[in-house]
């Protein structure tokens, strides 16, 4: 594989850690942080790309070098360059969501597609780049079989798409109808006669093998449809834009599919495909109207929950380990309640109030059940379910950063981790990349003297005295120091190892702060947070790190998002209508 | 086309894989041997197996490395769990991993492929080239229904690292990680599920795969290089599945599907139990000759693994940042104990020709650094277990490439030696600084 050594990554990393002395004397010019290998496609432009936010505060004196494709700083002429087209594998929730739509709940329950594997922290990027391994191909066959058996046993949903399967004794012609009509839904485009014929042949072969039983033929026909690469992979290669043949835009059915998977987490329905095939999904307003209709469907809520469950790593809470002796109250049920609390707040902001999405950071209320109320020291809500409650002022909580899902997820089993909590804020809320420790650094904290207990903050501050650590840890750890009043499962505390906690800290870019609420107030007004909300959809839904050639369009989207009160529903609609969503580069 | 077996189906003892116990004892499969017992019935040489076994975050070198070299070396504190299989264990110390980049942990994985990782960006990287198990599987995988199997024990991998390097032990290339299976039930399905008796619909399944091939061929023309490589991998998977579909059922009874699902209860991950079941499945798969190549990711580098099952409640990775941590030491001994569990099962098993699986296998074990608090790869230890039909030295020895704390040589020399044990034509492994063209003479066996 050809490898290009670009200065881009290195400069960005340097920019992120101004005092990082990077040099590794044993390694000549090939130190880790000073050079970065990147592939020709998918160049990893991290969050602090020039142009994303012109005021990256820590870049004093460092001029990041671009790859030479375009420079987008300063609003000069920009060349829009979309990400390459090509294949993206359906993620598990796409696959299962599609099966639910095509065949119903029982079949969705039987679906067992291969695992998702992430790159750069996003399953969608893994789905765009990684190959399936051999065991995955077998799992796809087994999954297709289990789905087909369930779908044939209960044909009520399938019959809604292809009525002939509900007839008493369907003839072979019904296999043609399944291939054409269900195939169109599963493959997200009309099938050619040449594509229908082998599917029907398999159905007839299976029917003969099964003693003439229609159902047997149907089962194997469905298995064939679901094992096809046209089901398993989204094919997004586009066509030349008639208005600007230099740009490739998604074909109407490709766009319909991308929108449906993005907003509803499933294959597009027949009506949408018909709209696309009729040439009525072309103008920006066409796209907006379809997107708005999608957002009114319940699947849109579920899909957004799936998105944030991945982004905030809430889904890991179910298997998170905590020290059972220290935290006996950390049960599966409590972990689930933590997850639900965060998703419930997002649901409230986005769907019930259609409010400023940054409320996620500074909300002075949350949703708790009795177990969570107990964890937070709040009076229990009536009943066993969740209820909206005001946060207590004394604990300094606000929004996501005061929630146990985040605080517990980014902590160790027995200790907090200011570094991890800070890293989450950098990576997922500010879209900034923080480089790894420099080569040869000794990661050990100073030995503990049992007669001289130290708080976590004191230990880490000592660690930060090492100049090779300080450059990056000064970006991360202070953010976590402000959250030291929340223990490894998110409960409020004032003592750490018997010593009074001092949550005051500061970073060069944000200034001083001493609580989740302080951090939330600073982040709320930080334009990097706003930009990052958008970038996360590019990464986590479209499956690529945003590219230099997309920055201008993303800036426009950001301005529009700001002008529309930071409402996420509006952003989602505008994103689908934007060139970032609708155009592709040459197939990768 | 896989069609080597011509022996009629026979049923042998049924294994007991219900719990975490039960070394599965198969009788000799004489039917598979030629009249002299020195080759398979079809004249093919007796099978030799290869396993990579990985554990994260290194060791504590002064408590790990034996104090004397050569045969009959004394076991160290951290190697003591291997006492029961010591004759089969060779320890290599003082070797240098010559990976060209260091970011912590990722570079350590070069001991499994001899390549520097690629697409490095922060704590992201992809494997720079194929791992040794895949090179060996490419050589011998066609002889069995499954070319290679990839298993894992602790599912709590690193959350700070991203990319493929730290999340898969086996790789065919940068975009072709072979991720481990952590659920023993699914591992059973991957290994044996295809042989469970069902209605014989092989013709239909093959027809479907033919259609998939045709569709993929049509799709290729629209796509670029990267995606065509992904479709090639997809087609490799289709061929592998087809090979399984067409394979004659193996000559042994299928083990029962395990009940273990690798589910944590109250924060306790069932590591010992899962390791035992995975080891049983591997023993069974080797004895049945379903596959000859495996990778075992015991627990990840920089991973979230907590050995709470033995009362250690701080994460092992976190512990590894403190050289004086007794919990780190205890964790390392626990890891070596689980490695020993697998080796003991290999030793207790009986292969086709009456030997045990340590006589007929080579197990290559290493970590992602020498010691966790420095993340150094300068003196990265390697353990070799089994001699693979005397391809490697037996009884095992301790080879010290340089006195502590120095380092010398190239860990990839060990890789090349193992590769040549399966492929005499191999002349090099890896690329760039970590590449090796010089196998290690000291560890060659009498039949090398």
UniProtKB/TrEMBL annotation, chain A:
Q: What's the protein name?
A: DUF1592 domain-containing protein
Name all DUF1595 domain ranges: 174-236
Q: Where is the composition biased (Low complexity)?
A: 23-74
* Annotated signal peptide: 1-23
Residue ranges annotated for the DUF1592 domain, each copy included: 250-378
Where in this chain does the record put each DUF1587 domain? 88-152
What residues does the DUF1588 domain cover? 397-494
Any single Pfam family the record assigns to this protein: PSCyt3
Which terms are listed as keywords in the entry?
Signal
Chain residue ranges for the region called Disordered: 23-87
Q: Which InterPro entries match?
A: DUF1587 (IPR013036), DUF1588 (IPR013039), DUF1592 (IPR013042), DUF1595 (IPR013043)
**What PROSITE patterns does the record tag this protein with?**
PROKAR_LIPOPROTEIN
TrEMBL record, chain B:
According to the lineage, what is the superkingdom? Bacteria
**PROSITE patterns membership:** TAT
Q: Give the InterPro entries listed for this entry.
A: DUF1552, TAT_signal
Name the chain's protein: Tat (Twin-arginine translocation) pathway signal sequence
Species of provenance: Nannocystis exedens
One of this protein's Pfam families, by short name? HXXSHH
The taxonomic lineage of its organism, from the top, reads: Bacteria, Pseudomonadati, Myxococcota, Polyangia, Nannocystales
């Amino acid at each position: 594989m050809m490898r290009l050594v670009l200065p881009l990554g290195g400069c960005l990393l340097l920019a992120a850690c101004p005092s990082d002395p990077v040099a590794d004397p044993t390694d000549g010019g090939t130190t880790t942080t000073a050079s970065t290998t990147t592939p020709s496609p998918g160049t990893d432009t991290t969050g602090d790309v020039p142009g994303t936010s012109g005021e990256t505060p820590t870049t004093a004196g460092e001029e990041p070098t671009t790859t030479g494709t375009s420079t987008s700083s300063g609003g000069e002429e920009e060349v829009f360059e979309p990400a390459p087209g090509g294949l993206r594998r359906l993620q598990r929730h796409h696959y299962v969501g599609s099966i639910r739509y095509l065949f119903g709940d029982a079949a969705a329950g039987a679906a067992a597609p291969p695992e998702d594997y992430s790159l750069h922290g996003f399953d969608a990027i893994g789905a765009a780049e990684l190959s399936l391994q051999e065991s995955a191909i077998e799992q796809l066959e087994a999954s297709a079989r289990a789905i087909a058996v369930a779908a044939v046993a209960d044909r009520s949903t399938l019959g809604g798409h292809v009525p002939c399967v509900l007839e008493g004794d369907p003839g072979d012609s019904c296999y043609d109808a399944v291939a054409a009509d269900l195939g169109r839904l599963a493959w997200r485009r009309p099938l050619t006669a040449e594509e229908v014929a082998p599917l029907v042949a398999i159905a007839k072969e299976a029917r003969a093998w099964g003693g003439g039983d229609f159902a047997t033929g149907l089962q194997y026909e469905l298995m064939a449809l679901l094992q096809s690469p046209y089901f398993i992979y989204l094919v997004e290669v586009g066509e030349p834009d008639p208005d600007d043949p230099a740009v490739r835009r998604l074909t109407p059915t490709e766009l319909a599919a991308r929108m449906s998977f993005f907003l509803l987490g499933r294959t597009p329905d027949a009506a949408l495909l018909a709209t696309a095939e009729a040439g009525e999904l072309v103008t920006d307003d066409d796209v907006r109207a379809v997107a708005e209709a999608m957002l009114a469907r319940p699947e849109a809520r579920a899909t957004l929950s799936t998105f944030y469950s991945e982004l905030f790593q809430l889904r890991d809470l179910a298997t998170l380990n905590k020290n059972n002796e220290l935290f006996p109250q950390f049960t599966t049920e409590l972990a689930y309640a933590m997850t639900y609390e965060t998703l419930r707040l997002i649901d409230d902001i986005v769907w019930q109030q259609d409010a400023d999405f940054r409320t996620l950071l500074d909300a002075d209320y949350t949703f708790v059940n009795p177990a969570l109320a107990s964890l937070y020291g709040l009076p229990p809500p009536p009943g066993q379910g969740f209820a909206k409650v005001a946060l207590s002022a004394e604990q300094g909580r606000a929004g996501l950063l005061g929630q146990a899902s985040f605080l517990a997820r980014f902590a160790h089993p027995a200790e907090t981790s200011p570094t991890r909590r800070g890293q989450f804020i950098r990576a997922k809320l500010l879209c900034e990349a923080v480089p790894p420790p420099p080569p040869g650094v000794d990661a050990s904290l100073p030995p503990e003297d049992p007669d001289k207990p130290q708080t976590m903050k004191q230990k880490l501050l000592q660690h930060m005295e090492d100049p090779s650590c300080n450059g990056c840890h000064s970006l991360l750890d202070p953010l976590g120091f402000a959250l030291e009043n929340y223990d490894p499962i998110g409960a409020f505390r004032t003592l750490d190892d018997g010593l009074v906690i001092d949550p005051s800290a500061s970073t060069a870019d944000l200034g001083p702060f001493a609580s989740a609420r302080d951090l939330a107030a600073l982040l709320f007004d930080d334009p990097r947070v706003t930009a990052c909300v958008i970038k996360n959809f590019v990464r986590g839904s479209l499956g690529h790190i945003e590219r230099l050639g997309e920055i201008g369009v993303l800036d426009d989207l950001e301005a529009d998002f700001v002008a529309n009160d930071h409402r996420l529903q509006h952003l989602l609609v505008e994103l689908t209508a934007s060139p970032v969503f609708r155009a592709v580069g040459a197939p990768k | 086309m896989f069609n080597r077996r011509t022996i009629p189906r026979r049923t042998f003892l049924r294994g007991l894989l219900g719990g975490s116990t039960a070394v599965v004892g198969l009788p000799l499969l004489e039917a598979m041997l030629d009249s002299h017992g020195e080759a398979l019935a079809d004249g093919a040489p007796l099978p030799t197996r290869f396993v990579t076994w990985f554990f994260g975050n290194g060791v504590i070198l002064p408590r790990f490395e034996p104090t004397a070299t050569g045969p009959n070396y004394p076991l160290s504190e951290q190697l003591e769990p291997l006492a029961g299989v010591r004759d089969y264990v060779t320890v290599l110390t003082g070797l240098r991993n010559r990976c060209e980049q260091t970011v912590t942990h990722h570079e350590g994985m070069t001991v499994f492929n001899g390549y520097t990782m690629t697409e490095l960006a922060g704590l992201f990287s992809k494997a720079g080239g194929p791992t040794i198990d895949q090179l060996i599987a490419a050589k011998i995988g066609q002889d069995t229904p499954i070319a290679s199997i990839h298993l894992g024990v602790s599912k709590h991998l690193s959350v700070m690292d991203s990319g493929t390097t730290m999340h898969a032990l086996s790789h065919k290339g940068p975009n072709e990680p072979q991720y481990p299976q952590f659920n023993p039930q699914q591992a059973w399905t991957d290994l044996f599920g295809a042989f469970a008796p069902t209605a014989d619909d092989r013709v239909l399944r093959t027809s479907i795969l033919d259609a998939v091939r045709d569709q993929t061929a049509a799709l290729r023309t629209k796509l670029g290089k990267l995606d065509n490589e992904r479709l090639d991998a997809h087609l490799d998977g289709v061929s592998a599945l087809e090979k399984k579909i067409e394979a004659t059922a193996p000559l042994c009874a299928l083990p029962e599907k395990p009940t273990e699902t690798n589910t944590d209860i109250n924060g306790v991950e069932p590591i010992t139990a899962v390791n035992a079941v995975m080891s049983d499945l591997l023993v069974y798969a080797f004895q049945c000759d379903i596959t000859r190549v495996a990778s075992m990711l015991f627990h990840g580098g920089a991973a979230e693994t907590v050995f709470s099952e033995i009362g250690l409640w701080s994460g092992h990775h976190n512990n590894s940042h403190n050289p004086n941590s007794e919990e780190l030491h205890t964790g390392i001994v626990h890891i070596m104990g689980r490695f020993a569990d697998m080796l003991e099962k290999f030793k207790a098993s009986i292969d086709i020709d009456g030997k045990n699986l340590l006589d007929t296998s080579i197990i290559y074990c290493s970590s992602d650094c020498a010691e966790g608090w420095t993340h150094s790869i300068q003196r990265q230890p390697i353990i070799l277990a089994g001699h693979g039909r005397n391809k490697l030295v037996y009884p095992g020895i301790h080879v010290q490439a340089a006195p502590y704390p120095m380092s010398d040589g190239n860990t990839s020399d060990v890789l090349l030696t193992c590769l040549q044990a399966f492929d005499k034509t191999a002349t090099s492994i890896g690329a760039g600084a970590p590449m090796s063209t010089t196998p290690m003479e000291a560890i060659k066996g009498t039949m090398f």
